[in-house]
Amino acid sequence: MSIEVSNQLKTFKMGQQKVLNKVKEDLEKHRVNNDSEQLKELKNTVLDLKCRSMKNNPVFTGLGGETNTEDTEGKLRDFIYHELEIEKDLEFDNVHRFGRFVRGKDRPVVARFLYHGDRLLVLKSACKFQGKPFGIHEQFPKEVEDKRRQLYPIQRRCRQAGQRTKLVRDKLYVDGKLYEFEEGSVGSGRTHGSYSDAARSAHHTNGERAGAAGPRSGPNTREMNQTSARGGPV
Fold first, then answer.
1. Are residues 114 and 150 located together in one domain of the fold?
2. Rounded Cα distance, 81 and 74, in Å
3. What average pLDDT is seen over the chain?
C-alpha cells in the first residue's frame, strides 16, 4: 500500500470518527433533554396531586389562645359557630395546628373536611371576617405558596387600578389574561417580570397616583393580617 493511499485511509477513518463522536454527542444531548422534560413533567404531576390532596383543607388564621392541651377541633367548631354563624354540624377528618411553634404566637389551624359541601359552606361565609383579625384560605404546597406570595403585590396593584383579578393556584389572571410571571423575579421590595398589557397598565396607573398623592404609609396590622390570612384577594 502506497504512502498516499495510507494517508487517505487514515484521513477517512479520522473523518468517520469525528462523525461518530458528533452523533454520540447529539444522542447524549437528546437523552439529557428528554430526561429533563420527563423530570419536569413528573414534578408537575406530583405538584398537581399535592394540590388536589389539599383541596379540602382550608387554613384558618387568627384563632388565638393556643395551648399544649387545647382541643383544636372543639375550638374550631366554636369559632365557626360564633364568627361564621354556621349552625350545621360539620364533619372533619382531621383538625390540627401546623408550623413551627413560637411562644406567644398562635399557629394557623388546618382542617380537613369530609364533605366538599361543608368546605364550600365555610368558604362562602368567609366574607363575615371583614374588619376582623381572622382569615381563611386554601392550603397549598410550599412551591405554590411561595409563587403566590410573589404575585400578591401585583394582584393588589391591578385591583387598585380597577382591574379584575383571579388567582388560581400559582397563576394570576388580569382581566381574563394570564399574567406572565418570571419565577424568582421579586427582590428589594420590587416586583419584576413580563407584564401583560393589563398588568403593565395597572402598574403605571398606580405609580402615577402614588406620585400625585405623595408617599403612602404602609398597611396597618389588621390589613396585613387579613391579606396574609386570606392569601391575597381572589
1. no
2. 11
3. 75
